[in-house]
Amino acid sequence: MPTVTNIEDAREQLEGTPEHLSLPARYLWKTIRDDYDLGDEAAQAILTAAFEAWDRAKRARERLKEDGEYINDRFGQVVVHPAVKVEREARNQFLSAIKQLGLDIEPLRSGPGRPPGHLGTQEFNFDLDL
Questions:
Q1: Is the pLDDT confidence value at 14 over 70?
Q2: Interatomic CA distance for residues 63 and 118, integer angstroms
Q3: What is the pLDDT of residue 12?
Q4: What's the pLDDT score for residue 129?
């Protein structure tokens, strides 16, 4: 996620993103839209639905962190928290939208060859205590 030094920078960077999404979702929405060249309205609507589901799953996870995965029902019986189902369904909706957009492939690159990065230049420590 890009580093933002003040609120004006954030507003500029997020211009054109759906305002009802969380800030992290808006950053990712913009990054994916730009990296995969999703300029048409239909693709952006699907992308928005994906990140609405992403936000919903995140809220469900936060609730589960507070309450735990199991709660007591009105009869005192231990049951699975309803947020478990919400999180699972929202995650599946997100993944479905990403797949529908064809985003399970590499983004377009400006030229052939391996993507830029530090592959092959990393140092590995193979000292094993056996």
A1: yes
A2: 38
A3: 74
A4: 47
User: What are the pLDDT digits (tens) for 59-94?
Assistant: 999 999 999 999 999 999 999 999 999 999 999 999
Pick the more confident residue, 25 or 127. 25
Q: What are phi and psi of 72, to 5 degrees?
A: -95, 135
Query: How many C-beta atoms lie closer than 10 Å to residue 94's C-beta?
Result: 19
- Phi/psi at 38 (5° precision): -95, 75
CB-based contact 22:55 (threshold 8 Å):
yes
Q: What is the residue-averaged pLDDT of the chain? A: 83
Tokens of 92: 């599946």
Alpha helices in the chain (DSSP H): 7-13, 23-35, 41-67, 82-100
Q: What is the mean pLDDT of residues 3-19?
A: 74
Classify residue 47 as exposed, middle or buried by CB count within 10 Å of its CB (0-12, 13-18, 19+). buried
Indicate the helix (H) or strand (E) that contains 72. Answer: strand 70-72
